[in-house]
Amino acid sequence: MKLSNKTYDTLKWIALVALPALTTFYGVVGATCHIPYTQEVLTIAVAFDTMLGTMLGISTSRYNKTE
After folding, report:
1. For 62, phi and psi rounded to 5 degrees?
2. For a surface tag, which of 7, 29, 45, 65 has the fewest beta carbons within 10 Å of its beta carbon?
3. Angle between helices 38-66 and 19-33 (to 10 degrees)
4. Mean pLDDT score of the chain, rounded to an integer?
5. Chain-centre distance for alpha carbon 15
6. Are the C-beta atoms of residues 56 and 8 closer than 8 Å to each other?
């Protein structure tokens, strides 16, 4: 499957900027307000972000090999 540049750039921004910012914000607010399952939600969010970043890295590597 080939990603368009716009899709790739959007996913990259989500993985590098949006998800880390959101998980940090949620972690601080969750801990401060004693929101249940904060740690579990953070663990899942970080795992998802790591997976997305890895998949984008593999995609970039494959694209660069074909250029």
Report:
1. -65, -40
2. 65
3. 170
4. 93
5. 3
6. yes
